[in-house]
TrEMBL record:
PANTHER family per UniProt: OUTER MEMBRANE PROTEIN TOLC
Taxonomic lineage of the native organism: Bacteria, Pseudomonadati, Bacteroidota, Sphingobacteriia, Sphingobacteriales
Organism, scientific name: Daejeonella lutea
Gene Ontology molecular function terms on file: efflux transmembrane transporter activity; porin activity
Superkingdom to which the source organism belongs: Bacteria
Protein name: Outer membrane protein TolC
Keyword check for Transmembrane: yes
Family of this protein: Belongs to the outer membrane factor (OMF) (TC 1.B.17) family.
GO cellular component: cell outer membrane; efflux pump complex
Residues spanning the membrane: none
Keywords, sorted A to Z: Cell outer membrane, Membrane, Transmembrane, Transmembrane beta strand, Transport
């Protein structure tokens, strides 16, 4: 009997450890708040938005002039022989020559075929794309948090049911042992009760391991210490008033995926404008102020100094580049067609997913109602069977069957609730309406 006592103490210790000590009570609202503040994907995407905002400037689009300060110096030392027109020859070894030049330079491309305006609009669209991707990341993270949170809720309910099953199996084993000692039960009944207790204990330990793994995943989503312990709510609230028509309308207006496709289409159209700018001339203004000084040990001018203002204009137009302009415009037009097709594809995909998941959602709501009734029947059956078992009027196998029916009914009920919640979250995520309300 010693090994049975060891198993009993081990089971009690394992079952007590996750729930007996004081733990943080984590609400869904708090979990979402921590994820929105700390989640790495959200923080990275938020930084991308800041970069996109910084890039939206007329200077980045090429609308502003460029002013540079230039400085150059050049020095030489050479052996030189010069023959002048008079026939006189001059020779100098190590003759030094120097040239110094510096000054500001101004360049402004005032016209490039309207390409700079298309670039500026494209930068603004890229900012919108970043903001929409941020919304998509937030929605995805929110869905992950909600799904993992309610996964813990349903697992917690299963652990309670399995814990109760272990208590009942332990009571059954004790009863069988007492009956065996007074000669009213066979050894086989005691062994069967012991095997069932071990089976229930194994199922409980496995469920606790899954529960702890899901906790780690939720802590990871909240970007906090993965070993932080906590408990969650004990109920799953399902919104059963969702309408497919409303979801479809919300998806057309708010779906981040559709918004991304629309922005990409707009970017493709602006890219075509930039390509078409190559058909127009480019006009640039340039100016500057330059100081120049040169010295030479040979020649007529030993020293020269100059300073002055310069200005001018440059214009150029593409006359022929091997039909590359036509090819680039054709490719840009195809990109617009691809963006349109991508939008239509995503729209159809979202519509199909909404319809399919909505049917699953309705089925799960019906299963929740059915399994709730089954659970109540199984509970009543177990209560009656336990009372008969205490009186000794129920066979062990019949008692075990009632016990298993209750455990299975409890698991099916919590799983039906969880699956309905998953379908609800998926519908709201696809329609862009996911929130905690």
């Amino acid at each position: 009997m010693k090994w049975k006592t060891i198993i009993l103490y081990l089971v009690v210790g394992v079952l007590a450890s996750p729930f007996s000590r004081a733990q943080e009570r984590l609400t869904l609202e708090r979990a979402v708040q921590l994820a929105l503040e700390n989640n790495y994907d959200i923080r990275l995407t938020r930084n991308d938005i800041e970069i996109a905002k910084t890039n939206v400037s007329r200077a980045n689009a090429g609308m502003f002039p460029i002013v540079t300060g230039n400085f150059s110096t050049n020095n030489t030392s050479s052996n030189t022989t010069q023959t002048l027109s008079s026939g006189v020859t001059q020779e100098r070894n190590g003759a030094r020559n120097s040239n110094l030049s510096y000054g500001p330079a101004f360049n402004w491309q005032v016209f490039d075929g309207f390409g700079m305006f298309a670039r500026y609009d494209r930068l603004k669209e890229l900012q919108k794309l970043g903001e929409t991707n941020f919304k998509l990341t937030v929605q995805t993270t929110l869905a992950d948090v909600v799904n993992n949170y309610y996964d813990l809720v349903q697992q917690q309910q299963q652990i309670k049911a399995l814990n109760g099953a272990v208590d009942i199996s332990r009571l059954r084993l004790k009863n069988s042992q007492n009956r065996y000692l007074i000669g009213r039960a066979a050894k086989l009944e005691v062994l069967a009760a012991s095997v069932d207790l071990n089976t229930d204990t194994t199922n409980l330990l496995r469920q606790i391991d899954i529960y702890r793994g899901t906790k780690i995943r939720l802590n990871e989503l909240m970007a906090r210490d993965i070993n932080t312990d906590f408990t969650v709510s004990d109920t799953i609230i399902i919104q059963n008033r969702l309408l497919l028509a409303d979801l479809q309308t919300s998806a057309n207006e708010q779906s981040p995926d559709l918004q991304v496709a629309l922005i990409n289409k707009r970017i493709a159209e602006l890219n075509l404008k930039q390509v078409k700018a190559g058909r127009y001339p480019t006009v640039s203004l340039n100016s500057g102020y330059n100081f120049n000084k040169s010295t030479s040990e040979l020649g007529f001018a030993r020293s020269s100094v100059g300073r002055g203002f310069n200005y001018g204009m440059t214009a150029s137009v593409n006359i022929f580049n091997g039909f590359l302009q036509k090819r680039n415009e054709k490719n840009a037009s195809i990109e617009i067609d691809n963006a349109k097709l991508e939008y239509e594809k995503i729209n159809q995909n979202i519509s199909a997913q909404l319809t399919s998941i909505y049917q699953t959602f309705q089925t799960n709501l019906e299963l929740v109602r059915l399994e709730q009734q089954n659970l109540e029947v199984a509970r009543q059956n177990l209560d009656i069977t336990m009372e008969k078992f205490r009186l000794g009027s129920v066979a062990p196998l019949e008692f075990r069957e009632a016990q298993r029916n209750y455990i299975d009914a409890s698991a099916r009920y919590t799983n039906a609730q969880y699956q309905a919640k998953l379908a609800e979250v998926s519908l709201q995520q696809l329609s862009g309406t996911l929130s905690l309300e």
